[in-house]
Automatic annotation (TrEMBL):
This is LPS export ABC transporter permease LptG. One of its GO terms (cellular component) is ATP-binding cassette (ABC) transporter complex. The chain crosses the membrane at residues 20-40, 72-88, 108-125, 283-303, 309-326, 338-361. Its main location: membrane. It is a multi-pass membrane protein.
Amino acid sequence: MQLDFFPSRTLTLYLAKMFVARIAAMLFVLVLVLMMLDLLSSSGEILAVEGNGQGELLTYAGLRIPQLVSRFLPYSVLLATLITLVTLNQNSEVIAMKAAGLSAHQVLAPLLLTAGLVSVATFAFNERVVTRATETLKAWEAVEYGPIPEEERVRTNIYLNDNGNILTAGYLAGSGEGIVMRQVTWYERNADGMITEQVEAEEARYAAPGWQLSGVTRFGVQNAVTDTPDTLLVGEALTPDQIDLAKIDPDAEPFWTLTRSIAEFERAGRPTAELRAKWWHKISGPLSAFLMPLLGAVAAFGLARSGQLFVRAVIGMALGFAYFVVDNAALAMGSFGGYPPFLAAWAPFFLFLLIGETVLIRTEE
């Protein structure tokens, strides 16, 4: 029996079903509460737009819920682990399993298998659903909850430098010569870096060369004169290829699309350390769910009547939350170039994998 990693089929299914039910329950509660709080803070901005109503609130909730599910699913697995193991301990089921010859790893095996499947499902959900919801929501926020842009490949908060002059856009859509920028602002500067002209426009399209602005309002800083020409040509040195590489949002691009985007950045000689860290984290992030049963395992063992069950549960929760803190800190360091991308994404995972195994072996095996 000791040579088998999993316990019997009946016991494996029993533990897995119990674990899945608690993961679903914790995820539902967390997402429901957080969605309600989010709506309380965002509903005022959404309803302030003329024509918006209950339908737009439901649209916002539909776009926000996938993000909440992705972000808090690992927390749900951690809390479900603690609840499941504490319940098994209080009912003396862990004692019965160990008395039957099961090791600590065999007791945890069904939970680890379930968490591993959750990690795989999370990766697929992130790349197929969350990225699309994030892209649409950011584009909607860029137009201040007005009509949702229908174009594909929308990117927000664009900032471009054209020989000292600055071109910004609230968002752009499309690629190549079909790029359309909206909520555009053009700052023309002199040799001393002082702004001499500020132009605001509703839209910018490629004019080969340059970008033709429409819906223009131009303000001359030196003479304080405002005029509204029909069109205006700016940024003749900016090409569609440069704008295509102006900004990549890793959160809004699926794994395979981000792979191509990083390759394009590298060919253009642009820095890719931050994008590489996010690329690796698209794999290591979902795997955090797999760690939770191991980090929370300290709550499974030790006699409930010893009075230390609560303390052990707190230790398990502390280990789990410490992982998320270290993971976010390492990813931030990777974004700033402090850590290599691979190390920033994977070091917390392997560190806490070793910590969890060490605690489990030293205390139970």
